[in-house]
């Protein structure tokens, strides 16, 4: 399992804060503006390994792994990573052990990060751990939610970030619908 904070996503969020990203032009001087809800489309990345629905006012991007996809608008970003699994299984006890390891690792790496919640859940039919919190990314305060999804061969990490006053809106417009619609393969680079 890979439980480190994902620096590429953090840097992407910092660049989004400075540049403002999205399909619609952002109002001048408002880098926190988010693409509106409305029409959605399906995005596919990683040779079909990951797909999700997203609002067309947000900007999806493909990458070559381990980060396979991103979805961003204004100061909000979701980054999706895939890591081969070589650790514990997917039984409830193994997922709980993964949750404890994630929290311990996060505390060691970033003692200033405030964990506001952690929970066991399911995403695309697979067991998952969500860790929510607040911290600094690129020097800017962010609200974060990392969702670790445990397929037998792949640990999927779905990191969602936004400035504090935009996280609830970003969650409603894009983050929660993405998690509800996401399809994750048991192999990277293949649909199986």
Q: Tags for this entry?
A:
alpha+beta, Protein Transport Mog1p, Chain A, seven-stranded antiparallel β-sheet, three-stranded antiparallel β-sheet, 192 residues
Write a structural description:
24% of the residues lie in helices and 40% in strands. It has helices at residues 7-19, 92-109, 167-181, and strands spanning 40-45, 50-55, 59-62, 67-73, 76-84, 114-123, 126-137, 140-150, 154-162, 183-184. The two termini are 20 Å apart. The chain has one domain: Mog1/PsbP, alpha/beta/alpha sandwich (Protein Transport Mog1p, Chain A), CATH 3.40.1000.10. Residues 1-29 have low confidence and may be disordered. It has 192 residues and is α+β, with helices and mostly antiparallel strands. It contains three helices and ten strands, in the order H-E-E-E-E-E-H-E-E-E-E-H-E. The strands form two sheets. A seven-stranded antiparallel sheet has the order 3-4-5-9-8-7-6, with helices on both faces. The longest helix is centred in the middle third of the chain and has 18 residues, at 92-109.
